[in-house]
Every structure is written in structure tokens, then in C-alpha cells.
Design a protein that fits this description.
With 143 residues, the protein is of the alpha/beta class. The chain is built from four helices and six strands.
Length: 143
């Protein structure tokens, strides 16, 4: 009987934690406390670096505990990070476990609708099981 290999912590700061999942994707768990813009940028930058390192294209994003993205964070994510994550990191699929906080949902909806012709697909889910089921059906590497 084989045991499943546990996820490995790749990066962690005040904004969140990144885990490398043996099934071939990154898991981002956003923190519930206050964060500085540089903490948010560090989480996103390390997401991209991990995708590059492994040749992966998928991220599971758990936003249930998080505070909403600020306008500054939204601008940086959509205008700088997303294009780089796609072109340099191979990012293609994001499964978002949504927060019960409507302000988090609105801030995230703004980001996920700004893919602007990038080969990137986001889907939102209420549960981790639904998010994982969809994410694991997507290619593990960019095509």
C-alpha cells in the first residue's frame, strides 16, 4: 500500500503560504491578517517562480480566510504579474476557492476577468473538493 506524498511548503509570509503539491500544482493559501503590498507581490512572484521551476501550469488558490485585494494590488496583479506568469511561468489554470466575504469576491472577480486574451483560465468554487476535481482535469504543464 503506497502512501501519498505530503505537500511541501515552498514559501510563506504574512500574506500567505505556498505549497508544492505532488499531484503537479501549486497551492496558495491566503492569510487572514493584514498584509503589506510587498508581501502580496512576494507571494505572487514565488507562485510564478515555482511554476517555472517545476514546469507546472496550475494553481489552487484558497481565498476563504483572506482580506480583499487593494486597488494597488489589483493593478499590479493584472497589469504586471498575470502577463509575466503566463509568458515566463507557464501559468494556464487557476482554481479559486472563494471567500464568503463579498468584498474579497468582488476584488477577485475584477482580477479574473482581466485575462485580456491571455491563455489563462480561472474558475471559482465554493469547496476545495470541487476546485481540486476541476484543476486535476487540466494539463499539468503548459501546452
Amino acid at each position: 500500500m503506497s502512501k501519498l506524498k505530503p505537500a511541501t511548503i515552498y514559501f510563506e509570509n504574512a500574506a500567505g503560504r505556498l505549497l508544492e503539491e505532488p499531484a503537479g500544482f501549486m497551492r496558495t493559501i491566503w492569510g487572514s491578517g493584514p498584509r503589506r503590498p510587498e508581501d502580496t507581490r512576494a507571494v505572487f512572484t514565488h507562485m510564478m517562480l515555482a511554476l517555472q521551476r517545476h514546469g507546472w501550469s496550475r494553481i489552487l488558490i484558497d481565498q476563504r480566510p483572506m482580506q480583499p485585494f487593494t486597488a494597488e494590488e489589483q493593478t499590479w496583479i493584472t497589469q504586471e504579474w498575470m502577463p509575466r506568469a503566463v509568458s515566463e511561468g507557464g501559468y494556464r489554470h487557476g482554481a479559486v476557492i472563494v471567500s464568503p466575504n463579498v468584498m474579497v469576491r468582488l476584488a477577485t472577480a475584477y482580477i479574473t476577468t482581466q485575462v485580456l486574451g491571455l491563455p489563462l483560465q480561472y474558475r471559482s468554487f465554493e469547496t476545495e473538493a470541487e476546485a481540486l476535481a476541476w484543476l486535476l482535469q487540466q494539463p499539468a504543464a503548459p501546452q
